Amino acid sequence: MSDTESRSTQQCVSCGIQVSGMSAARFACPDCGATIYRCAKCRKQSNLYECHDCGFRGP
To answer: Which InterPro entries does the record cross-reference, listed alphabetically (predicted)?
Structure first.
């Protein structure tokens, strides 16, 4: 995947909004290492998330 394609698919794993250009967190899944993006609102509210690759769930 090219750098441009990866930027256009950056979505919050909790709510699904595009996080490109926002104050968002990017981190590796604790189980499989896949990249997870979360928007500031979902992080502040401690919304649950689920890794799309392995199904790991976290707060």
So the answer is: HVO_2753-like, HVO_2753-like_euryarch, HVO_2753-like_ZBP
Check: pTM over 0.70? Answer yes or no: yes
Burial class from Cβ neighbours inside 10 Å (0-12, 13-18, 19+) for residue 58 reads: middle
CB 49 within 8 A of CB 38: yes
Which residues, in sequence order, are CB contacts of 9 under 8 Å at separation 6+? none
Three-point CA angle 26, 31, 35, nearest 5°: 25
Find, among 42, 11, 17, 37, the residue nearest to 25 by Cα.
37
Q: How do residues 8-58 score in pLDDT, each as one tens digit?
A: 579 999 999 999 878 899 999 999 999 999 999 999 999 999 999 999 998
